[in-house]
Specification:
- The structure is a single chain.
- The protein has about 325 residues and is an alpha/beta fold.
- It folds into 2 domains: about 5-145 and about 230-265, 3-Layer(aba) Sandwich (D-Maltodextrin-Binding Protein, domain 2), CATH 3.40.190; about 145-225 and about 270-320, D-Maltodextrin-Binding Protein, domain 2.
- About 40% of the residues lie in helices and about 20% in strands.
- It has a 6-stranded mixed beta sheet with strand order 7-6-8-5-9-11. It has a 5-stranded mixed beta sheet with strand order 2-1-3-10-4.
- Strand 1 (about 30-35), helix 2 and strand 2 (about 60-65) form a beta-alpha-beta unit.
- Helix 11 runs antiparallel to helix 12 (about 315-320).
- The structure holds benzoyl-formic acid.
């Protein structure tokens, strides 16, 4: 029902965002949606960027933030950007693997965004995103942040046999390789799944569980973390191509400024590690050899499955994303 109401509203307002063909000097307003909730750090940072962009872009380009999962279900954001129902989305690739398997490979990068922008990785990403998803990849809004497994039950080795774990495509193959039974949900459904005992744990980055109140239902965090949490800004390719050079310049200056500020995640992560300890979340660690095997397995499973699903682009991504 939510989707229908949303699409109807979107259809009515499409005319207002149509980019004029012959009026280069005219101001264009782009509609932005987020796959993550309004109170998350992702959205707070995005809103700061939009404020700065709208101040500097007067007469050229404006961004209009429509909202998060209350406005559009998170797993729909990718398709809405692809088809131009919205202009820009903030999402993680895991939420639009329905469009192409490569979307979820951004979690496998071991190199920060600003460097990927220079080493050719962003050119490759855009080749794929343009060709397969009708999207322009604009930039990454989180870096330096691993994913972790959070549990309500204790484990003493990296074996999830008999446990039901909430996943998205980010964690699916890895947790299954560790023996888990997996249940996919949007972030907004995790609390209830924990409360009802439908799952014994979930995957999430090191930062952010307090935004969703999951600390009440979380007893353990498994260390080490794995992969690099990825949330990015993606844009409809036709809308991107219709922008003037000046409009692209305003947009990219602000996106790159946000990407260059990703160092701030290091402190955000440290703060949440302390806060998790303060509320009594216990850390489960493995011996050094098992910990290494755990992380190696995450990357092996991730790359092997990507290369299987994308024999052309998988190996190219691996080469440019890895140290
Ligand atoms: O929902 C998720 O656990 C997920 O896939 C994700 C991806 C990036 C950032 C935060 C969560």
């Amino acid at each position: 029902m939510k989707v229908h109401r949303w699409l109807a509203a979107a259809a009515c307002s499409t005319a207002t965002v149509f980019v004029p063909l012959h009026a280069a000097a005219q101001e264009v307003t782009l509609r932005v949606v987020s796959a993550f909730a309004e109170n998350t750090t992702y959205v707070k940072n995005l809103e700061g960027m939009i404020k700065a962009l709208n101040a500097s872009g007067k007469g050229t380009l404006q961004l209009n933030f429509i909202g998060g999962p209350k406005a559009m279900p998170p797993f729909e954001v990718g398709n809405a950007v692809r088809t131009g129902v919205v202009d820009i989305g903030m999402s993680t690739g895991a939420f639009y693997t329905n469009i192409m398997p490569e979307a979820d490979a951004l979690k496998l990068t071991q190199i920060p965004g600003p460097e990927l922008r220079k080493n050719g990785a962003y050119d490759l990403i855009n080749k794929i995103w343009n060709e397969k998803a009708n999207m322009q990849y604009l930039g990454r809004v989180i870096d330096f942040t691993p994913f972790h497994l959070y549990l309500t039950k204790k484990i003493d080795k990296p074996d999830l046999t008999g446990l039901k774990i909430r996943i998205t495509p980010v964690y699916r193959d890895f947790f299954q390789a560790l023996g888990a039974t997996v249940v996919q949900t949007a972030p907004g459904e995790v609390y209830t799944a924990l409360e009802r005992g439908v799952v014994d744990g979930y995957g999430w980055p090191i930062q952010g569980i307090f935004d969703m109140n999951w600390q009440d239902k979380t007893r353990y965090r498994v260390d080490p973390g794995f992969y690099s949490a990825e949330v990015s800004l993606i844009m409809n390719l036709d809308k991107w191509k219709a922008l003037t050079a000046a409009q692209k310049d305003v947009l990219m200056k602000n996106v790159i400024a946000l990407e260059n500020a990703n160092d701030s995640w290091k402190k955000a992560n440290d703060d949440d590690i302390k806060r998790q300890a303060q509320v009594g979340i216990q850390v489960i660690t493995f011996d050094a050899a098992s910990a290494k095997q755990y992380v190696d397995k995450a990357y092996d499973v991730g790359w092997t499955n990507l290369i299987k699903a994308s024999p052309t682009y998988g190996p190219q991504m691996k080469k440019l994303f890895s140290r």
